[in-house]
Design a protein that fits this description.
Largest sheet: 8 strands, mixed
Strand content: 35-45%
Order of helices and strands: HEEEEEEEHHHEEEEEHE
Helix content: 10-25%
Mean pLDDT: 90
Distance between the termini: 55 Å
Oligomer: single chain
Number of domains: 2
Low-confidence stretches: 6-27
Number of helices: 5
Structural class: alpha+beta
């Protein structure tokens, strides 16, 4: 019995030390750090190479993509306790462009902590749109430089997805264009929420990178099945634009998280 009590006391001591160490680890995350996000564009599990023919999608359509650009916005991170840190809105609009090799964004001054979920939007939310040019800073200029504005009206293209395609019924190379944006009061802005497979650790001594894999094929084939052979130019279609928006929100997946050294 005496030996049992000694063993029990020893076990309790070990557990107490372990808990203290865990507390020390958590308390060691102080200050603020940077979280970068990489948007690694692909197509159906392969790298997206502009001008290269891809495998047929489930509609039997073979796409050669020549342009993929899109706007991501309104980033936030949710920590292990469920608290959400919202990145400053005015600094939270970014352009991803395969043509211009723009695939990384930086979110500086993230409060120290352990984060388990990444959230962001695809496109321009109504609040930002209603601010007009004065409240949008240089966003219009940046978007215009990457073919993400309409030439005929004051509005943004959230996604510019272009190329050529063939199918069983369309045997000659035919242009396709998918331009998603606001149509009147139809905002077509969608939010994305991604659980992180590894906890993001941030402090004044540790930055982190979240590497996303993007499957551009889902813009047409995901929850909604959109056939280019039926309509190859999708721009201001009030019926199909919301379907494209939902599909586009599903093209993002977390590949891995890297917790590295500080800045």
């Amino acid at each position: 019995m005496k030996n049992f009590k000694i063993a029990l006391l020893a076990l309790i001591s070990i557990l107490a030390i372990s808990c203290d160490n865990d507390d020390d680890d958590a308390m060691g995350l102080t200050g603020a750090g940077e979280v970068s996000v990489t948007f690694d564009n692909g197509y159906a599990g392969n790298d997206l190479i502009l001008g290269t023919t891809n495998a047929a999608n489930t509609n039997g359509e073979v796409l050669t993509v020549t342009r993929l650009s899109y706007i991501v916005s309104n980033f936030s991170l949710i920590d292990v306790d469920g608290n959400e840190y919202v990145f400053p809105k005015d600094d939270s609009y970014f352009i991803i462009s395969q043509e211009a090799d723009l695939e990384d964004i930086a979110l500086p001054n993230i409060p120290s902590g352990e984060y388990t979920t990444l959230k962001f939007g695809v496109g321009i939310d109504d609040e930002k749109f209603q601010q007009g040019g004065e409240g949008q800073g240089d966003l219009w200029t940046r978007a215009e430089a990457h073919n993400l504005t309409w030439s005929w009206t004051a509005g943004y293209k959230y996604i510019n997805y272009e190329g050529t395609f063939t199918s069983e019924s369309v045997t000659e190379e035919t242009d396709f264009k998918v331009h998603l944006g606001r149509i009147g009061d139809l905002v077509n802005y969608e939010e994305v929420s991604l659980a992180l497979p590894t906890t993001v650790m941030v402090s004044d001594e540790m930055d982190a990178n979240i590497h996303l894999k993007i499957d551009a094929s889902k813009i047409l084939v995901a929850t909604n099945n959109l056939k280019l052979s039926e309509k190859a130019i999708l721009m201001t279609d009030a019926e199909k634009a919301p379907l494209v928006a939902v599909n586009a929100s599903e093209m993002f997946a977390v590949d891995h998280v890297h917790n590295g050294n500080g800045h």
